[in-house]
Amino acid sequence: FPVPDLDFEQGWIEGDVKGDRLTIKKLELDGKELKVRVSGDLVMRERGTLNLAVKLKVSERLAKEQAGLLSLLKNRDPEGFYLFSLGGTVAEPMPRL
Fold this sequence. Notes:
Elements: E1 10-18, E2 21-30, E3 34-43, E4 50-58, H1 60-65, H2 67-70, E5 82-88, E6 93-96
Antiparallel strand pairs: 1-2, 2-3, 3-4, 4-5, 5-6
């Protein structure tokens, strides 16, 4: 699935770094087409593991344009965010839908 270019007006992150481990308490990116929320942890090496909870909220236009991709995401919260986990490694992330 081709991913469109996306612009974000603002973004922020709250987290802790201990050694090579980054714990993300809250990462938020807000744009006109997409809002992203991420929490969890990762080991900051190429083969470092990912354990992230991801939430995406797409605009109506992007939802129509990316209907095939969004059809893979089954879970939505009451605010309209699609929910999935991201595991695997930094070099080879694996979404868990």
